[in-house]
Amino acid sequence: MTTSGAIGLPMKVVSPDLPPRVRIHEVGARDGLQNEQSVVPTEVKAEFVHRLADAGLTTIEATSFVHPKWVPQLADAERLFPLLGDLQGVHLPVLVPNERGLERALALGAHRVAVFASATESFAKANLNRTVDEALTMFDPVVSRAREQKMHVRGYLSMCFGDPWEGPVPVAQVVRVCRALLDMGCDELSLGDTIGVATPGHVRALLTALNEADVPTDRVGVHFHDTYGQALANTLAALQHGVTTVDASAGGLGGCPYAKSATGNLATEDLVWMLHGLGIDTGVDLGRLSATSAWMAGHLGRPSPSRTVRALTHQEQ
Ligand code: HMG
Ligand code: MG
Fold first, then answer.
1. Which residues, including other chains, have CB under 8 Å from residue 258's CB and lie 6 or more apart?
2. Which ligand 1 atom lies nearest to the CA of residue 98?
3. Of 93, 202, 223, 242, which sits 20 to 30 A from 25 (CA to CA)?
4. How far apart are CA 161 and CA 146, in angstroms?
5. Is residue 256 annotated as a catalytic residue, yes or no?
């Protein structure tokens, strides 16, 4: 695929109130592929991760060590992870829900893990078969052991803004679980808008409430799904608040099999277009990244939902 020549890059107009650099936490291979109807062959996943690294992404969430019956799309984690062993200078975090998952990740030499909590009881039950507090109890020994092993631990928190069963989620409820994850020893948090209902004012209110609970912004990343087309606006609000870690998914792949109203994540290409236009460095080569997403869309048999991928690679609507 080729890019569209003269309009292959955004015009750069620097915004001095924004951070000079953003770290993109790429989740396409995990959040993206966990939600596909078809199971993508392991070799294709490995090539996908290599191509993402070639495009300049340095944090690429590779897979999950969850129960294979819960997420069959990622049941090949043991076969995939060793195929990524040649990647230099790239962090490859993996999801682990419990001690069994951590054992599997440790056996393969993973250096970064993520636990994934819920701000709501309904999603904790659907996604982890636990209450919110039971899930925290399940994560506690995982985080302790991972830290003993000098691993970097991310704590996801889902349903930070709205929940398909419970509706709008009170900010205080979210802050409580964020605090618990940090107190447990997580190095960073990722605030999940799992079903993509957040709007920028809500994002600002949550980040402010977290600061008031002594959660510093430099420990917080944002993870927006794009169901209502708000993900980029929400990201800009987070950047204005000082957030410098943004999760995104190449080509806008994604969703959560245990939250039916979840659609794809913010597309990495759409994010990079905005960041580069704002003069914010990401280290990503947008042309290579879009070509990768167009290639993956070919494997999945449908066009990428990312507007930027379509514009740069002339994919049919
Ligand atoms: P459970 O059924 O309660 O499991 O599921 P259990 O603890 O009762 O164990 C039952 C059996 O499963 C045992 O085997 C365990 O060994 C085995 P048995 O003794 O009966 O033979 N088992 C495992 N096997 C392999 N790997 C494991 C594992 N754990 C237990 N890790 C469990 C509880 C947590 C396992 C299950 O609920 C689960 O796997 N859930 C994962 C769901 C998931 O992956 N969801 C998507 C990721 S979250 C997300 O996408 C949101 C995010 O993107 C942020 C956002 O957008 O908001 C991160
Ligand atoms: Mg997600």
1. 123, 126, 127
2. 31
3. 202
4. 29
5. yes
Q: For a ligand 1 pocket test, name from 31, 34, 67 the mutation site with the most ligand atoms within 8 angstroms of its C-beta.
A: 67
CA–CA distance, 18 with 73 (Å, rounded to integer): 38
Query: CB-based contacts of 207: which residues, under 8 Å, 6+ apart?
Result: 217, 220, 238, 241, 243
Of ligand 1's listed atoms, the one at least distance from the Cα of 258 is 45
What is the rounded distance in angstroms from the CA atom of residue 235 to the CA atom of residue 271?
8
Q: Whose CA is nearest to atom 8 of ligand 1?
A: 129
Give all domains of the chain, ordered by start, each with its CATH number.
3-316 (3.20.20.70)
pLDDT at 316 over 80: no
pLDDT digits (tens, 9 = 90+) for 113-138: 999 999 999 999 999 999 999 999 99
Separation between Cα atoms, residue 162 and residue 196, nearest integer Å: 8
Distance CA 222, CA 248 (A): 9
- What DSSP line would sit under 2-14, residue for residue? ---GGGSSPPP--
